[in-house]
Amino acid sequence: MFKVLENEPRQMGALDRALASLDWPVQAAQRELLAPGERVARVHDSAGFSYISAGTAALRVGQERSELSAGDLVIYPRAHRAEIRARRECNVINAWFLPSGGSAQTLGTFPNTLLVREFSVREPNMAMLIEGMLSGQANASDFNRAGDAVVCSLISTTIVSSAIRLWAELGCAPERWLHQVSDPFIARALDAIHESPGDPWTVQNLAQVATMSRSAFAVRFTTLVGQTPASYLTDVRMETSKTLLIRDGLSIAETAHRLGYESEAGFRRAFRRHTGSAPAAWRGQQRSLLLPAV
């Protein structure tokens, strides 16, 4: 017998709301065949993913390193530089997205990479969609048929949403991740910080954004996020500064001003505390790491 479905709509849970707040419109996709020992580095100013279709490889994103095997999927929720070195002959499918119109707060709660191991085993239908994105081509960036852009974007959103769900189900998400996403009061403050990190935020005016008292906001924010509002704001500013320095090519003085620092010296001190390097030295190091596309 068939199960009779209730007429009342099911209430969305925290994970449902997080996934519903994001879309991942595909900009381009590329298949790369790497010989053993060959490496490739890519810098993108938006989110993307890498899927290991065959072989094994080592991945480096910033200071994070991972070993990847066939069927593994790595999602980059934000602008990123990823370096992949083939251990054995490796077939990699890379895709990157147009800037998402979704919640900045939800994106901000993700780590730099979301690694889902054995994605092809756990989500075989999604893996087939990834393989089918290129339809035997090496590259896919031009849409030839009317509606291609919409269809491909729906496919990529489905793939990434399935991967994030599996990532959360496997216990890979950081502690309190869904609490940050689901709390409507703290979400307002997080959205405000990510949308305008250079504004002169204080605990008081963030509490007003969250429509809470100052003391209640400070306690709830620290409990859910695991950092004080001031510490979280500094982290967001520092991560934003990296994008401004590398992708946008702003000077150190311009970056400091854009992020609300009263002096360049104050920004330099904060940057050194966050990264261990002065801004100029860090930028020089990052540029030296960039490899030409192969």
Automatic annotation (TrEMBL):
<keyword id="KW-0805">Transcription regulation</keyword>
<dbReference type="GO" id="GO:0003700">
    <property type="term" value="F:DNA-binding transcription factor activity"/>
</dbReference>
<dbReference type="InterPro" id="IPR011051">
    <property type="entry name" value="RmlC_Cupin_sf"/>
</dbReference>
<dbReference type="GO" id="GO:0043565">
    <property type="term" value="F:sequence-specific DNA binding"/>
</dbReference>
<dbReference type="InterPro" id="IPR009057">
    <property type="entry name" value="Homeodomain-like_sf"/>
</dbReference>
<dbReference type="Pfam" id="PF12833">
    <property type="entry name" value="HTH_18"/>
</dbReference>
<dbReference type="InterPro" id="IPR018060">
    <property type="entry name" value="HTH_AraC"/>
</dbReference>
<protein>
    <submittedName>
        <fullName>Transcriptional regulator</fullName>
    </submittedName>
</protein>
<keyword id="KW-0238">DNA-binding</keyword>
<dbReference type="InterPro" id="IPR050204">
    <property type="entry name" value="AraC_XylS_family_regulators"/>
</dbReference>
<keyword id="KW-0804">Transcription</keyword>
<feature type="domain" description="HTH araC/xylS-type">
    <location>
        <begin position="187"/>
        <end position="285"/>
    </location>
</feature>
<dbReference type="InterPro" id="IPR018062">
    <property type="entry name" value="HTH_AraC-typ_CS"/>
</dbReference>
